Amino acid sequence: MTSDVKKLPTGFGRLWTAQTVSSLGDGVLHAALPLLALTLTRDPMALAVVTAAGTLPWLLFGVLGGALVDRWDRRRTMWVTDAARAVLLATPAAAAVLDVLSIPLLATVAFLLGLGGLFFDTAAAAYLPDLLGRAPALLERANSRLRGTQTAVSGFAGPPAGAALLALGRAVPLLADAVSFAVSALLVRSLPATPRPTPPKARESLLRQARAGASYVFRDRLLLGLALRPAVGNVAFVAVDTVLALFAHARLGIDTFGFGLLLTAEATGGLLGAGIASFLGRRLGTGAALTVTATVEGLAILGLAAAPNPYVAGLALAVCGAGVGATMVLGPSLRQAIVPAHLMGRVTSTSRMLAMCAAPFGAFLAGWLATTHDVRTPLYTAAGLLLTMTAVTSTMTTNRRVEAALSAAAQDTDPVHPESRDPAQEQARGHRSTAK
Fold first, then answer.
1. CA dist list (Å): 314 to 42, 186, 249, 308, 318
2. Which DSSP symbol is given to 195?
3. pTM for this prediction
4. Is there a contact between 309 and 108 (Cβ–Cβ < 8 Å)?
């Protein structure tokens, strides 16, 4: 992507701050939730239920959620969702204080938080290109800052804080995340308004709109490649997350605070990856860079599976984090630059749905493999899945496809008001990358 001298708008600073605060709370809960579950059970399958519950909303409502976001005001969707999540977390906090916390309750809360994440994340991904005028270079800079800061606070500060807060009481990390959602909601509510998506025609049903968004992804090989890689990646990464706390305790001898530090090592790599993503994209081309980072992720998980001690495990997680950090800047920036505004919510949710729907399989696969074999077996399996999918999708996200898609997107004259487009021309655009 070419450089752009324009500055990020003032409103981006508030969005950045809101997501930073919310990410800090998420980092606290990311470390605290599996540790909370471990205080209730050591059964790998029960732990898998809690992990999988947070991803099930994408399986059940993913594409429909994107269609709703394309109908709703995106800023309002974000702040209402965060306010609701802040209120929701009061329930498990109260249960922890009353000593009635249970695995079913944790799974239910994880499910509802995941449902909120579906609406918030989809709306945020659709709001950002509207705020930045869909400029590719600005999107890359913005996503680099968002991803880098998110990694820093949710990885560096959040996990150790989550482990430390849990030592003060089981309700404390839950309340901390609730506060972060409340602050985020207030900040998002103050963001500037952007042009709303064109209202759907009266004859268009929600299901028909959702189907149109999914079709747009599946007919474009580049978008499909960008969606398939994280889909299989989520099977692998959720499998790793499901058994990581157990692996750290049983095989590496890591205590509660040490587990937080292990997650911090992953965040260190993620921060580095987000920082060098633009350099990799310029040096290798966005398509080639995405293939390289995916390969790095697979090899790093292989190293984690074979790790003989906490230091090697921390290094492996740091390398994996670097690959993920770069991928999460380059992939979303490219998608936001090439997808029309009126389809952004549906395309984003379809892509995320593929990734998140795959995640429960990773959780249950990890639980089954750890129960029937060994706690390292899910890690080896995850590495194999990552490397296999990298090979399969490498021809779908080539530099040539990326440049063709960016060139086609640059010809769109009014991405916010799709009624100004020639429908036949729009349909033809959806097939261009397939023909390349």
1. 23, 36, 14, 11, 6
2. P
3. 0.69
4. no
